[in-house]
Glutamate--tRNA ligase (Micavibrio aeruginosavorus), 463 residues
Amino acid sequence: MTIITRIPPSPTGLMHIGTARTALYNWLFARRHNGKMLFRIEDTDRERYAPEYVDSIKDGLTWLGLDWDGDVVSQFDRRDRHAEVALEMVKAGKAYYCYCTPEELETMREKAKAEGRVTFYDRRWRDADPATAPKDIKPVVRIKAPLDGNSVVHDKVQGDVTVANEQLDDFIILRSDGTPTYMLAVVVDDHDMGVTHVIRGDDHLNNTFRQNIIYTAMGWDVPVYAHLPLILGPDGAKLSKRHGATGVKEYEKMGYLPEAMRNYLLRLGWSHGDDEIISTEQAIEWFDLDHIGQSAARFDFAKLENVNAHYIKLADNPRLVDLVTPFLIERGYTVDDTGRARLLAGMDELKNRAKTIVQIADEGAFYVKTVPFDFDEKAKANLDKAILQTLKDTLSGITEFNATNIEDACKTVANDLREGKLGKVAMPLRAALTGTTVSPSVFHAAELLGKSEVLQRLDHSLT
């Protein structure tokens, strides 16, 4: 049997971090078993549907490095097939036409409330004579749910979950205008696409009992289920915008690497012993459904930053230059060949200090700056003119302009002007060269900038 999973997001908003984790688990499970992960857009809600959200979901999956097999399937385009299945069930006596008006349904609900009963539809058309059907009402189609006993969902994460059938209603599968409901569309699509494993959020667990009624009515094989617990914010509440970014592409803008996000999302609900850093290759080899936890996971931005820092250190320097360049351009800098060369030369030190690409942009921006540039407030406070003038005179005399000789020159100035305190000289130099008070080793930075550029920046700081 070929393992087939699916990722079926609704294009009614940006791709949520929970959807990203679900996609990752589906992708890993399929790849581990040499199976397929299919991609279906559940776009039947036409009022909230927007093509740009489809593009956003595709972009999110692509950024995460999660590919899918075959073409993207539109659920909306399959609505005729869904209706066909509903009518098959009517013919087989597994579903029926219901002619209740909205007013009748409301009266039914109010009566049940008043009597302290569940407010389900009372099944009055379940076994009614079709000859009594009113001619002026377009009916809906309802499934015939079991009336007694229990239903069990065998879930790979939640275990066996049982519901009394009296809690299941004869829900609508086809609306009066002939369009399918979500319950019907999902089951028909999963069956027709050959889905063997449904891995999704546990907010769908209640739906599973109803969807299984359709599988049984059609005589179709029920897939293996694995319902994932929620992702919570650090405070234990459901993850939302108030906790920070929830859309996947926002994390790219925040400077996270896709491989770091894959690693972090993998561990956000699944474990392999005490391993925290797990490569994608290892994840494909190790991933299973048995080690998904039942408890909700808490999103921890500090942990994500630590994982990201690890992958930044492993990343190729030219790739990091490419990644950091858009951030610098966004800040108004021009990144020419000279600036790229300096960034590349200084990347080892930059990436060993950084937790995000944004941090690399902030601390490496001085490599692409050109005179004149602005100084931030802290840098301005450190522009000691006497020290900077002496530094300029001293550094101009260096023949071999390397970090060691630059540091020695600064030590000489410190001994002459600041009682040997090197920091009292290094900080003004850093401020003059970078426009800030945060940077990698200022002596190494000065070497990479080159003698001519350093002297030009010192001149600028003295104006």
